[in-house]
Design brief:
CATH class: Alpha Beta
Strand content: 5-15%
CATH topology: Rossmann fold
Largest sheet: 5 strands, parallel
Order of helices and strands: HHEHEHEHEHEHH
Mean pLDDT: 95
Helix content: 40-55%
Length: about 210
């Protein structure tokens, strides 16, 4: 019941300052805990381009990489592509591995849970798990990402974005319908919000949160 209440009503994530992040990374380093930077994208846009939201997150990612140049970066496809436009490259790009995976919607096979699982398995394969994960995702999506990661054993720190307004990450050219509608119409972000509510409930039912 507590998790159901959280899924329906918990939408505010406490973000540390960059100074607090630096202190946490220093502490993790001192106790020899691995540190990693993880990102979740907001889907691609027409022509399989990164789009507005991923480009905005890539700017924050580039700043974080400059702060911690030796920390590996596991970036989901959309953010990884936007990062390359800035002249940076992720350590590992996380994306669909099966041919035919749709890029215009999530499925029960490829979704945020799968992305976190792939990131964890990469870290395990490189002897870096459990890790302190500096995590970048859009505001409305961050809560679900946080719960998925904590369920899988991550210590997670959300990285603050320039704005907490979800609409600033929407794109009228988005392949995801909810992203596209929210980018075209001021009230369209409600569609994205409702999609996120349904995704939370599905993930809770699947035991992923």
């Amino acid at each position: 019941m507590k998790k159901l209440f959280r899924c329906l009503f918990s939408w505010q994530v406490a973000y540390p300052s960059f100074e607090e992040i630096e202190r946490n990374v220093l502490f993790a380093t001192q106790k020899k805990q691995p540190v990693v930077i993880l990102t979740h994208d907001i889907g691609l846009c027409e022509g399989n381009t990164p789009g507005r939201g991923n480009r905005s997150m890539a700017l924050t990612l580039a700043r974080t990489m400059r702060m911690f140049p030796s920390v590996p970066v596991l970036a989901q496809l959309g953010v990884a592509l936007a990062l390359e436009e800035l002249g940076y490259k992720a350590t590992q790009t996380i994306g669909p591995t099966a041919s035919g995976t749709p890029l215009d919607h999530s499925t029960l096979v490829y979704n945020s849970h799968k992305v976190v699982t792939d990131q964890r398995e990469w870290l395990e394969a490189h002897g870096m798990f459990p890790a302190l994960a500096l995590t970048i995702a859009t505001p409305l999506h961050m809560g679900r990402v946080k719960w998925i990661m904590e369920k899988q054993g991550f210590e997670m720190l959300p990285v603050p974005l320039p704005t907490g307004s979800q609409r600033e990450y929407m794109d009228p050219q988005g392949l995801y319908l909810s992203v596209r509608l929210a980018g075209k119409f001021p009230g369209g972000v409600l569609v994205f919000f409702l999609r996120e509510v349904l995704a939370r409930l599905l993930f809770l039912w699947k035991g992923w949160l």
